[in-house]
Amino acid sequence: MDADKRTLTYAETDPLPNTTMKHQERFVNDRTIGGYLIFTGDDGRKMFDMVWFRERTAGVAGKPLAEQWSAIGPPIQPIPDEVKKLDLFLGERDVEFIHRPSVVTPNGSTAKGTTSGEWILDGRFLLGRTKLPNFESLWVVGYDTNKKAFRYVLLGNNGRIDENIGQWNEAERVFDWKQVNGPPGSTRTSTTRRLDNDIVESHIVAKTPDGKTHMDLTIKATRRK
Asked: In 3-state terms, what secondary structure has residue 11?
């Protein structure tokens, strides 16, 4: 953020191969935001070039915009079949976090709360929310057709950001996840599987660079009756 120029410049954390992105938004005034997004190939040709202006809407916040979105209709491109596999995250569930002894929780611990998931953006992504007594998070899951992989991003009320990339293991009927933004030298892997029609279980193991178990967590989510 450049406060003097009133501009916000973005940088890709996972750019497309042989491609450069330029993405910036400028706060013209209290009502107007202007921006641009350009993708350029290594050969100098523009692959995508878009400019926009956003004006603050008067009246009830979000209502006019929601009406515009409802008039857009179905997405132009078909939704990948892989997205259907995310339905195990749908609905409201009671959730239990079980921490085994580790660096984070030397004596282990348990916490109970709720979790929920719903389709967003024309059913292309799934938005979830998890609430525990001392922690709350929002998370988005989708399928990246460029990477041929699932992407999972979690935002916590403690400032935590987790980015994970995953694959569906058809033989084991399980999602295998790997964190991509962890501390240098550390590793974290996790799995998510449906135990039955009502229970989804995830298991997360994180290791420090010297091989110690930083976290060993099982998350059990049971569908509310």
From this structure: coil
